[in-house]
Amino acid sequence: MDIRQIRTFVYVAELQSFTRASAFLHISQPALSRQIRILENEVGIKLFHRSGHGVEITEQGRVLLDRCVSFLNQFESLRTGFEPKAHSLYCSGEVTVGLPVPATRFIGQDFLARFKKKHLGISLKIAEGFNPLIHEWLLSGSIDLAILYGSFSSSILGRELLAVEDLFAIGAATPENLARSTISAAELVKETLILPHRPHILRTIVDELGSDASIIEVNAITLMFEMARSGQGYAILPGNALNPAIATGDVVALKIKNPTLNWEVGIWHSNLQELSEPVQLVRDMIREEVVHMVEKRRWSACLAADLKLTKRSNSL
């Protein structure tokens, strides 16, 4: 057993696909399959159940996965453990945060300006993308932190829940839409929906409704909005993503009911290495910004229980 086999196994388990892991690790699929087969022979257990939809880790495989992630974490600590650590008041470094487009409303230029003023030595960079792409950036180490929507199982990544945010049906400002403030899920799935491709979390949420809705697949929020505004269908988005357009009457945001559709908003990091001091400072200020946005009603979301407790303890 060597480090390559361990890494391959961990990333196949994380991505739940030999094809995606092959592309992510930049090795051929036959070579990747061979590494997994050798590892299975060495440990004497079957690691994955294979199907046409990907792979699912076995119960015994999950036990090995936990040990492998722990090993990789220790290996990374050993590799970086001799780097000097700053303990001065002046902290320096570079931190990159991956953000989906809606999150740029609360982690935008005002936030960046305040952060720069407070932490002169830290270069904070923003990388914008859709959930699946940001997920891969975090796995590869291209970014240090990520705001991601939804909840999914991961041994490599850790999450802190920030808030739960309602989703709205964004449609044209027609007389019918202007006369109402809500739409039922049953009504909505009879309409044409404008949604990103799978495996985006919005598609997963709609798929869970068990509907055969007509869907136009668009992987650009600006285009989703323009199509909804022109009456080509309804985009499903968080209200904060389009607040200015909603305020001017360009579009209508209808609250979805029976059931209410929402998603969890979390801040994610890699479990394979310790968070540096600059990364921790960025994470802490994002937490503070989320609390501030919700308290000032600039973001319509429900704070996570842990953030509520933090806010309460800080006010005592």
Automatic annotation (TrEMBL):
This is LysR family nitrogen assimilation transcriptional regulator. Belongs to the LysR transcriptional regulatory family. It holds the Pfam family LysR_substrate. It comes from the Bacteria. One of its GO terms (molecular function) is DNA-binding transcription factor activity. InterPro entries: HTH-type_LysR_regulators (IPR050950), LysR_HTH_N (IPR000847), LysR_subst-bd (IPR005119), WH-like_DNA-bd_sf (IPR036388), WH_DNA-bd_sf (IPR036390). It comes from Natronocella acetinitrilica. PROSITE patterns: HTH_LYSR. One of its GO terms (cellular component) is cytosol. Residues 1-58 form the HTH lysR-type domain. Keywords: DNA-binding, Transcription, Transcription regulation.
